[in-house]
Design a protein that fits this description.
Helix content is 48%, strand content 10%. The protein has 17 helices and 12 strands. The strands form 4 sheets. Strands 1-2-8-5-3 form a 5-stranded mixed sheet. Strands 4-12-9 form a 3-stranded antiparallel sheet. Strands 6-7 form a two-stranded antiparallel ribbon. A hairpin with a 7-residue loop joins strand 1 and strand 2. Helix 9 crosses helix 11, helix 13 crosses helix 14 and helix 13 crosses helix 15. The protein is globular, with a radius of gyration of 22 Å.
Length: 460
């Protein structure tokens, strides 16, 4: 843990967490004024050339505009074909290796002893002043203890109990949509449904659900980590609000449980009642980091797969016709949509020793990026992988959720939400049409949409 993280833990019992975050913000601003602040990369968007017009040495998948300009697939395909384990010596996020083929990604993800997840899973470092720690960026045994504390929230029995609630909320949102006229699918459906799910998982006040979405978007969009657009003066106050809201929620739940109330099955209650995480409130960097992980994980993956599925069915209406004709294909179609969308583009690792990947030697300490978004389009694994095929035989072999000990904990919940969405959509609507090019976010990590205008045609 860093010195600032140790200091925040030592003072956690006397200084409220949100004040600690505000103090950290003031320190960073003071350092900036004194000319001693950390350099924050700036990004200016210009049209990117097609992959065929870029030298292999100049291909840099960390460019946050590749996804936004729909160039990522072409650049990644060139690397898979010509140099599947590719080194970038100088990027705004430092030097790194890109691993782009499905088989090589599986190798790296599987060998957590050779590739450490610490200290962070994104390409760039964390914003200075907030050295948060998340369990997805921990190695065993610490990772296992933290994950074990919260994974019960997505246990099969809990998912079964949540299914009725998810369906009720889905039908409520879909029944309120305009018919025959364009509307923003991202705002009306994808964000709304994932926000409602998040408040359930966290037992957070329902009327404040959209705050979770704002916090999630800021947490995943700092320029240092992902090349996003969040600025420090928005980021720190948002983290302070998260700290204040969830500290209060934790204290309230803790007091009620101590008074004899039966703990709930939400994430906060699970952490309060687990031996390894019951004192997380006294470790602010882990408290905030794990909250950020759970909020971003529950928000970005499902939300952007909901939007990506609509785009896919609008682009390939024959696949929508197949689904309408045979609804037993829906679970497989959900996996296929997640493969095609791959809502989070990659995970970062650090080599713990000299190791060979795809015939290339990677040195101890080198940064290694597993590009899931590339592996999921690998022609050797998924022929015609740039197209959605709802009855693709091996759709479930995608790596969008990762593989091994760090595989996404909420994958079954995400699949359940998407399955219910498509079941209810097909009941109500005959066709979906994306009426203009969607707006994509600026990021090398989140493959997200900020706006997608859609027109629905009702059944019958």
């Amino acid at each position: 843990m860093t010195i600032s993280g140790q200091f925040m833990s030592a003072t956690a019992s006397v200084v409220p967490m949100h004040w600690q975050v505000r103090a950290a913000h003031l320190v960073q601003k003071s350092l900036d004024l004194a000319g001693l602040g950390a350099r924050v990369p700036t990004f200016t968007e210009t049209p990117l050339p097609d992959a065929a017009h870029v030298s292999l040495a100049d291909i840099d998948l960390s460019n946050p505009f590749l996804w936004r300009q729909q160039k990522f697939e072409g650049y990644a395909a060139r690397l898979r074909a010509e140099q599947p384990v590719h080194h970038v010596a100088d990027s705004p996020f430092g030097a790194f290796w890109s691993v782009t083929r499905h088989a090589d990604i599986m190798y790296v993800d599987k060998h957590h002893d050779l590739f450490s997840a610490e200290p962070i899973i994104t390409l760039g470092d964390q914003p200075k002043g907030l050295p948060v720690r998340t369990f997805i960026a921990m190695d065993p045994p610490e990772h296992d203890a933290h994950r074990r504390a919260v994974q019960g929230v997505v246990a099969p029995r809990n998912l079964q109990e949540m299914e009725a609630l998810i369906r009720e909320r889905t039908t409520e949102v879909l029944d309120g949509l305009p018919v025959g006229e364009p509307f923003d699918w991202v705002e009306r459906v994808s964000i709304e449904l994932t926000a409602r799910m998040l408040v359930t998982l966290l037992d957070f006040p329902y009327e404040r659900r959209h705050e979770l979405v704002v916090w999630s978007d800021l947490a995943a969009a700092s320029p240092e980590t992902t090349g996003g657009l969040a600025v420090r003066d928005d980021f720190f106050p948002a983290v302070a609000e998260v700290a204040k809201a969830f500290s209060a929620l934790w204290r309230d739940k803790e007091a009620r449980i101590r008074a004899g109330e039966e703990p709930g099955f939400d994430l906060m209650s699970l952490m309060i009642t687990d031996e390894d995480t019951k004192d997380l409130i006294h470790r602010p960097m882990e408290f905030l980091g794990n909250l950020a992980l759970l909020i971003v994980g529950g928000n970005d993956t499902t939300r952007n797969s909901m939007s990506g599925g609509i785009l896919a069915m609008s682009r390939w209406p024959d696949q929508l016709e197949m689904l309408k004709a045979d609804r037993s294909l829906i679970p497989n179609a959900v996996s296929e949509i997640i493969r095609w969308q791959t809502p989070l583009a990659y995970m970062r690792r650090v080599a713990t020793q000299d190791v060979e990947v795809g015939g290339v030697t990677i040195r101890k300490g080198d940064k290694v990026v597993m590009w899931y978004a590339s592996g999921n389009r690998d022609e050797e694994k998924f022929p015609d992988g740039d197209r959605v095929v709802v009855d693709r035989k091996n759709a479930r072999n995608h790596v969008a959720f990762g593989y091994g000990i760090h595989r996404c904990m909420g994958n079954r919940l995400a699949e359940l939400q998407l399955k219910i969405l498509w079941e209810e959509l097909l009941t109500r609507f005959d066709s979906v049409e994306v009426v203009e090019e969607p707006e994509r976010v600026q990021s090398n990590f989140v493959r997200g949409y900020s706006r997608m205008m859609v027109r629905l045609t009702p059944v019958g």
